[in-house]
Amino acid sequence: MGETAAEKAATAKRDRVFLVVVDDSAERDVALRYACLRARNGGGRVALLRVLEPVGMIEWAGVGVLMAEERREEAEKLLSGLGAQVQEITGSLPIVEIREGEPRDQLLALLEEDPRISILVLASSTGSGPGPLISALTGRYASRVRVPMTIVPGGLDDRELERVT
Amino acid sequence: MQVYLPIAEMSVDAFLLMGIGFGVGWLSGLFGVGGGFLLTPLLILIGIPSPVAVASGANQTLGASVSGLIAQWRRGNVDAKMGGVLLAGGFLGSFAGVQLFALLRRIGQVDLAVSLFYVVVLGTVGALMVMESARAILRRRGAVRRKLHEHTWAHGLPLKMRFRKSRLYISIIPPALVGFGIGVLSAVMGVGGGFMLVPAMIYLLGMPTSVVIGTSLFQVVFVAANVTLLQAVQLGTVDILLTLLLLVGGVAGAQFGAAMGTKLKGEETRALLGLLVLGVALSLLWGLLRPPGNLFSAGPAL
Fold first, then answer.
1. Looking at domain A13-164, which of 1.10.540.10, 3.30.499.10, 1.20.58.340, 3.40.50.620 is its CATH number?
2. What region holds the UspA domain (chain A) (predicted)?
3. Cβ–Cβ contact B275 with A under 8 A
């Protein structure tokens, strides 16, 4: 076949997937924008993971079911909105994953199960400490992460993001 | 270890009280409920006079609900405006309920009335819970979808108000009425009323489920506080020693319950709770139907 190293690199670049965890923090948008810009400039796709909080025990089963349903609908609405943003920047729709449980555990499980994901993009909090996910994945759970991680400073503005991507 | 309860005017085993507090606290930690609807009838069953049992139940509910409310408030799951309307109704309702309670006490029918309330309410609630869980366990649930923004006669009522967090634009009359009803029940039965308030908010008012738990706790905390205060001031029926012993058990139980809550299987536990509620209702019913030990007792004439 005689594929050159440059051609190989080009296909690999197109196939890579940047995973962004969609939580309710302010840094989420920075991580998402960074991932989109990297995907646009260097090739690749964006994947979004939204982890729902489990409903827990409610005395009425019907209420619990309704609650789980509404949370899922809300997550779908949020992800389709973000998906439109991703498409605007990268030109393709993101891979979307909705799971239920503890965010950290679900993220690690997804990384183990889905071999397409190549880079995990997280943004650090602008307050004190980098945020719970980053602390966990760089600390106690560091050995369980199977992909490289990119930590984007949460305080970067759009121009700075353009520059570093 | 027997202790004398000054207000209830009787001696009971302190460990029995702590055990009841623990059991009810465990359930309230598990389900995130106040637990008054189990505590009050259990106290009545071990022979505590109804007025004291009701006042102590309200007090216990208050303690269990405050920490829940704080957690929900921090996460922004409380619709304070809706809570305020419910609460206005709730205050009126609990005031009316305590007056009703005082009247029943004057004519000497308070034990009968409280037991009847419990038999009817717990019987209905328990039966519904068991049926619901049985259906879910048997996997015969039809996909019943709720229509959002269904227009009913309730939308024609005046005094409309916008509730931003609940995404509703409705008259304040239905929520105030719901609050009033729960307030009356709270005063007469010594419950917070969350287990009836939550379905009422969803199915009657059409609130989104995300704010329902927090907002119901908001109403429950203030109404239970009001009931405890009114019962203490007007009727003098809050037994400090009794509530203290119950709280000691309750706090420990709630910790265990909250820790176990995430590990248990939902449907089976719910079915058990339903059976427990039904069991309490049946034993109260038996207490009403059973021929009394002494057939005649002297009391004030009506």
1. 3.40.50.620
2. 18-153
3. no
